[in-house]
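Loading example: each entry is read as two labelled lines plus one structure line.
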Amino acid sequence: MSDEATKPSGTVKFLSGNEACMEGAIAAGCRFFAGYPISPSSEIAEKMSGRLPRLGGKFIQMEDEIASMGAIIGASLAGQKTMTATSGPGFSLMQENLGFAMMAEIPCVVINVMRGGPSTGNPTGPSQSDVQQCRWGTHGDHPAIALSPSTIREVFDTTVACFNFAEMMRTPVVLAMDEITAHMREKIIIPQAAEIALVNRRKPVLQAGETYYPYEAGEDLVPPMMNFGEGARYHVTGLDHDRTGFPSAAAEIQESLHRRLLDKIEKHQEKLLLFEHHRTEDAEVLVVAYGSTARSAKRAVEEARAKGVKAGLFRPITLYPIPEKQIEAAAAHARRVVVPEMNLGQYKLEVERILGKGPTITGVNRVNGEPIAPSLILSAILGD
Amino acid sequence: MSMDYFQYLRKEKMPHIWCPGCGHGTIMKSILRALDKLKWNQDDVVVVSGIGCSSRTPGYLDFNTLHTTHGRALAFATGIKVANPKLHVIVVSGDGDAMAIGGNHFIHACRRNIEITLIVFNNNIYGMTGGQASPTTFTGFKGTTAPYGAIEQPFNVCSMAQAAGATFVARALDLDAVAMDRLIVQAMQNKGFSVVDAWSQCTTYFGRPNKWGDASDMMEHYKALTYNVRLSDKMTEEEKAGKYPVGVLHQATRPEFCAEYDKLIERVRPVEK
């Protein structure tokens, strides 16, 4: 009998992005998944429902995306590494509880397989139109970490990274995949467990009789986390709170909480930034692209080079926090920057902000459910 | 019977936010007496709430406590219970929190029959936001968003719970704390999803606009609106019309979610060779 659950890692497989995401989550130690069906992410929930009980983990189909997000926060507080997966409208529904997880500093992972919006939009076509929702989806100033993979192996690796970042930073992390990456199949070599570096939430070290302050952070700005049921009976709230976890109306406490939540991302930024430079060292025309669009962009850069144009690609894998210095460095020699994306210019806004009035910045944008072909990007590189 | 309430209270969080005459403190004490009787280790008890006056309860209690978003306490609680079934999970919620914004989670928690006890602090009004009509405001009664009296029909919390599949359903009045203690103990002992519709008077926002007097007057009104379910057989339909039964209203034995999941794991887990 072939046995998926006990098969050793390091095996060659032919997987879709959604399947690779499930494999990555399992490899990262995820043993709790709550979700609600929605295209084009549903395969992740389906695969988790099959795999998790075989590993002694738990899958639960909730009544909606709001409940799914609540359940993964609760399960994380009870000590599990947890995940949900959804798409555009479901991601919108998760925003309030995502804000709760950011505020209460509960690690968890949200997979958002982007689809066309607003509203029901285009449920099955590719899109990258949730980029700004990944940054600013919930209300209030808040920290955000969001990654976007381009290949099937990278889906696996970034899913693992999402769990590591969530555990390291005590915050929810979003994987923003486009539908092409989610449904495309590629050969993937799933690495051996020993090759995968995992991070677990840091536990407090308490002397006998010492009080646990769940929101007292040291120099790294990330408070150590004890799980519910482990002996320190503490309070968690979405209200502005002090180091004890209880609500506080003191102005200086509220101010320092909100600043710390952002500062902790800033402080650890270098560890969170994943990106790829492709022929950017002398690039006079720089393309900034992510997700499946970056695959078209790479091809367009090669074709431009063949025509004698010094083109290059900078590919942010971490969309947020933004690899700002890296984008600046990649654009050092650029007179023109092209930002292709399957939305109407959401990441271009960020590139414009970073590069200011230097190079000319052009978007190549599609919101019609079709991918951006290399020829479109090539035209923009050549300035046609 | 004497017990040390302070063993279970975060004294430094007092005084509580509730108005004079509010019934919420009575329900909170009843929950503590029930927990004291069950002798569960405090480290193994989790109290989860949403948003509202009742939802401030966990902050006063010395357990693992979680104050979540409006209406969503049951979703968070479900995650906690499924992730670690050894924990005793209690959810406290208000009538607006549980039956309006959280109504969907309420019916699905009942359907799943997951071993969680939900205590609905039902005062027929949104207290914290200033007295708006809630899903349990009686028809014709006033709230700040129903200045001419509510024209909608209220939900019956217990009928909803039973219809949706909860396996222990009871109604309790804060004016009979002894009965409430007994009902909450039974709810917590049930191996499934339990609902206690615990009535509480909101003197400030329900009593005043509806001219129901002070706390003791309001208790008299609630007493007149209810009857003991054990006397049901001896009462005529006319006597029961428009009134709410109090006591254990429904008990059933049905598979519990976490236990079923454990069986599923046993069934599909690969056998070690």
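Chain B has one domain: 16-268.
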